[in-house]
């Protein structure tokens, strides 16, 4: 029987590919937005609709970066609360801020 705490065999590979794909996803998001803008321009004939697509693509790219940031922050927060690493924390004392008072 398989242990429930065991990670899948390809989890590290998938996590690495996910990290590398951030740059690619940004480029693809902008390209898809430009394609939407070109489609709108062709349908409507108005040049300014191209810029709507460009802004949609840029917004999607920013959203991808934000999602990657949140995912990384969550994983680091989990690591910070891991009992294996609790003894590496340095306790904060009031002496550290003593220089700021003067």
Q: In brief, what are we looking at here?
A:
The protein has 102 residues and is mostly helical. The chain contains 2 helices and no strands. The chain has helices at residues 11-44, 48-80.
Task: Tell me what you see in this structure.
By secondary structure, this protein is an all-alpha fold. Helix content is 66%, strand content 0%. The chain contains two helices and no strands. It has helices spanning 11-44, 48-80. Helix 1 packs antiparallel against helix 2 (48-80). It is elongated and about 65 Å long. The model has no long low-confidence stretch (mean pLDDT 80).
Structural class: mainly alpha
| Beta-strand proportion | under 5%
- Unreliable stretches covering 5 or more consecutive residues: none
The number of helical segments is 2
Largest sheet, in brief, is:
none
Question: How much helical structure, as a percent, in the residues?
Answer: 55-70%
């Amino acid at each position: 029987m398989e242990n429930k705490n065991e990670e899948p065999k390809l989890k590290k590979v998938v996590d690495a590919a996910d990290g590398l794909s951030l740059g690619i996803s940004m480029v693809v998001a902008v390209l898809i937005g430009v394609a939407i803008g070109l489609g709108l321009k062709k349908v409507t004939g108005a040049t300014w609709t191209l810029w709507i697509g460009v802004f949609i693509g840029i917004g999607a790219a920013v959203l991808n970066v934000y999602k990657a940031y949140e995912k990384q922050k969550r994983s680091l927060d989990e690591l910070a609360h891991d009992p294996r690493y609790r003894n590496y924390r340095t306790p904060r004392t009031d002496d550290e801020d003593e220089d700021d008072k003067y």
